Amino acid sequence: MTDYLSRTVISADGLHLHYRDYPNAETTALPILCLHGLTRNSADFHDLALHLAPRFRVLAMDVRGRGLSEHDPNPENYHPGTYVADVLALLAQENISKLVVVGTSMGGLIGMALAAQNPALLAGLVLNDIGPEIDPAGLTRIKGYVGAVEPAKDWDDAIAHMKAINGHALPGLSQAQWERFARGLYHENADGRPVLAYDPAISMAVKAGDVAPPSMWALYETLSVTPVLVLRGSQSDILSTKTVQDMVQKHPDCTACTVHNRGHAPLLDEPESLAAIDAFLNHTAR
To answer: What is the pLDDT along the chain (286 residues), one digit of tens a residue?
Structure first.
């Protein structure tokens, strides 16, 4: 028996989009929706979901073009406006009118846009290593590998690729942890060969600059009625310490937590991450 149910929602333009449902029929707390980063998928949140499942219902979405969701035949649709519409379709299907969003990187940007467009929808927003200003150094690094990773020959090769790309951000992982990390980012094709679980065409949006504008402070400042928790990896090259300080200063209900020995982005299984998220949800989702 799995720990979650696999569900599907059909987007407005007809794509089948997958999401995980970690059910909790007994809770009266608000549901939690987890949204992943640019090249990632719902598997990122499995440990966090298991941690939260005794107290909350947790949903984790595969954004279009990632994980088990269908690829978009038109790569121009890989942008935050489309992603927000997809999330709203999921929430409508589940009849959810109030929730907390946990968003890593791109997922946090989607969460910010959701909150700005629908102020009554979000009871809280967790931003995992993302904010209204993105460090150009990190963005350049991401542009360098999205859609450009060499095909893996086997699982050992896939693990080596993931270490090469993410080793600086995730020091100290064991070989078993790296294997699990890789298996969350790849799936096996019909020949048993590992294939990255995202559409390489998402790189077009990245290179065109459609992932995020240089500054989103005006968007962030519309979130004044939404409590915010911002997590920052201590070695992040995407979210600077100065940006986090400004986020706390400019928002009436924003708290911040540094996750040590992590770059972009924390895995959300670290003790600091879990403690901060637990405290935030006790404040917002009960």
So the answer is: 479 999 999 999 999 999 999 999 888 999 999 999 999 999 999 999 999 999 999 999 999 999 999 999 999 999 999 999 999 999 999 999 999 999 999 999 999 999 999 999 999 999 999 999 999 999 889 888 887 777 899 999 999 999 999 999 999 999 999 999 999 999 999 999 999 999 999 988 777 766 677 689 999 999 999 999 999 999 999 999 999 999 999 999 999 999 999 999 999 999 999 999 999 999 998 7
Domains along the chain with CATH numbers: 5-143+200-284 (3.40.50.1820), 148-197 (no CATH)
Residue whose C-alpha is closest to residue 126's, from 241, 206, 232: 232
Q: What is the Cα gyration radius of the chain? A: 18
3-state SS of 85-128 is HHHHHHHHHCCCCCEEEEEECHHHHHHHHHHHHCCCCEEEEEEE
Phi, psi of 84, rounded to the nearest 5 degrees: -60, -45
pTM: 0.96
Whether residue 195 contacts residue 189, with contact meaning beta carbons closer than 8 Å, is answered with yes
